[in-house]
Fold this protein.
Amino acid sequence: MQLTRRDLLGATAVAGAAGLAAGCGPRRAEPSSGGSGGAAPAFDPASWDSVRAQFALDRDRAHLATFVFAPHPEPVRAAVAAHRDGLDRDAMGYLAANEERLDAAVLDAAAGHLDTRPDQVALTDSTTMGLGLLYTAVRLRPGDEILTTEHDFYATHEALRLRAERDGVAVRRVRLYRDPAVTTVDEIVGSLAAAVTGRTRVVALTWVHSSTGVKLPVRQLAEAVRARAPEALVCVDGVHGFGAEAATPAQLGCDALVSGCHKWLLGPRGTGLVWGSTRAWDRMTPVIPPFDGRSMGHWLSRRAGRPSTPGGRAHTPGGYHTFEHRWALAEAFDFHRRIGPDRVAARTRELADRLKDGLAGIRGVRLVTPRPAELSAGIVCCEVGDLPVGDALGGLHAAGVIASSTPYDPSYLRFGATVANSEADVDAAVRAVDGLV
């Protein structure tokens, strides 16, 4: 038996939903007002001015932190509004009439973006949730070890610390590079390869380091790991590459890729995903019960053993969610698809290079992020003389530039230009930094 949430909602709600289905589907909301006060113009994905016009950003400021927590483009805003209105009019009816179809649409869109199958994708609320689920779910035996790096973010380090605290799994860290600005592929690959042992079963990496802007050569790293520990799963926090780079999991050569969708993808806030290869999902035990029909039907039939729910669906946490945001992921992926992942990646690189060139020309400013494209993506980090990062952020804000700082020690000034930005935003940031020294 396959049970769905529609079944759980009850006969009255389902009967009502059948009559309301035609009126409960997501309606196209009116275009939201942009920063200029008018409606967003028709979307021309070939025009960067048109792409930028889909965002309701305050145009009195240069927003170089849109990658930290994304503004929604107009199609996403409209989808969120339509789903929200439907749920507000009749939450039970709208959910019963639309959930299965809309969940499937999101998974199809995510699979299209990742060039994979929908059943290999689990939906989450954030990168942090995905990392916690992944590193809790993977099965390990006594004596196995997890290898990570000194450069990973709190979410990875803490998820692994908690895993070690629960069951004694050994976790080691390796430093991949000494000076990010001048590191090389050989240094990074050599450092990781030297740290892999015969006991290594999981390697936890981050595609683009939010601490320095270094982009790891993931494929070369994965190949080096498998040459020394064939059983090891190469797991990647991909959030600062996902949407900024065009590489798919197959091209990266990893076993698992975790990302939020509200950073470089500029998708709905509070959304994320985990992609897993078949061998990765086969080595994991779900952490939170999924609300998938196969799992529910297995429970209702009181059968022993594990249900037949495929990997991604088995690892998608059940319960009620911010459905209006989750379902608007389909529009976020479509927005990205219409522009073209390769064009987005090229645009991100173009703006990052312009920013690096400008900052490198300011006396007293030290670039932290590497210049070569093979070792950097959209994040650009720097130091402004001896000026404390907090003071630099305040000075930039006063000059109309929104930047961020890296939540690490040491902390650097950090910029990131997305497709919501223009060359004028980058130039404004460079002028503002020049005014700080």
